[in-house]
Request: fold
Amino acid sequence: TAGVDAPRLFDAIATAARPRMGEFNPQNLSNTAWAFATAGVDAPRLFDAIATAVKPRLNEFNAQGLANTAWAFATAG
Reply:
C-alpha cells in the first residue's frame, strides 16, 4: 500500500459508491472491496452494499474477481 492514511477520503468514496453499486461491473465491485480491505478501512455499510450487489451477479465474475472478493471479505472481517 501507499501508506497514506486518508479516512475522510475513504468515507467519501464509500458514501458515493453505496448508492451506485448497480453501475459497478464485477471488477469494480471486486476492486472496491479489495481496496478497502487492503487499506484496513472499517466500512461495514459499504461491504453490505457490495455483498448485495455481488450475490446475484456471481456468475459474471471471473476466477480472479471471485478470489479477490472472497479475500477482501475475509480480511475485512
